[in-house]
Give the backbone structure.
Amino acid sequence: MSDFLVLKVIAKLLIPFILLFGFYVQMHGDYGPGGGFQAGVIVAAAFILYAIIFGVGTARRVAPMVVLVTIACLGVLLYAGVGVANLAYGGRFLEYGVLAYEAAHGNHIGILIVEIGVGMAVAGVIMIIFFSFARRR
Amino acid sequence: MDAEARQGARQGRRAIDLYLNIILLVFVAATGIAAVWLRNLLASAMVLGIYSLLMASLWVVLDAVDVAFTEAAVGAGVTTVLMLLAIALTGRREKRARSRPWAPLAVSLATAGLLVYATLGMPAFGSADAPAQLHVAPYYLRHGEAETGVPNVVTSVLASYRGFDTLGEVTVIFTAGIGVLVLLGSASRRRRNSATPAKGDSA
């Protein structure tokens, strides 16, 4: 795990692109294949690659467990929060149509926010599971 | 002339799909058997990763790109890493079984036979009058984009029409993560405590 120079250089080159692809999949899920779930896994995969190449300890300093748990919680809360916000706007739970002046537009906004919530929750949880397993060694 | 050419192209595509399906399914079966057969668990985990990638290719052939995406990312990627971590924690070689597991083999074969028999009662692949195509699917396909402003029907069904289900799914994933954190996190802390002289942890 320590002196594989080629692996380290390649990983450093790859990780930004993996993260960028993750965000692309996140924001582009309404037009192409993908969405929050896939994006969360891809972003988590970038961190897992970092942990495998540079050591779990380094990766845990980049993404401490507290931050991961907070991100996962915020993701679920964001999803449920959109539902509650719809109630406040006078709609039903998770009826996104009331979020904007017209139903289709509101639905689009609601789907985007909800997918971001899914992405945060999935990325957080995958990294939590990975680091929980990796820590026991 | 044009219609004829289109017909020919469609038939050509169907033939390619058939060959792709046969090749992929043969490899899926081979990797599945190899994963069970191998005694080296590291090799087994790798073979399962290949299995997932082949399944992802099969979903692509079936035009289910969203599912293929998830299968490739979760099945071939993250699950393989988690299995490698589990192997690193336990051991690399499978223990040799003492008894011949004939009874489980018979149960699995009987279940598989029943499932294959059940497929005979299913509607033909891609048939337009299958129950799945007649209930809500036509509505989603016809009105989905106009109602949600999202061209990808899968996303609109997942996040809007079936939004409540997806909220449940995210909650399940979240609960799984918290469960792993509570189980493994506290266990390692207890071990670290007992390595140093512990007070009253022995009860």
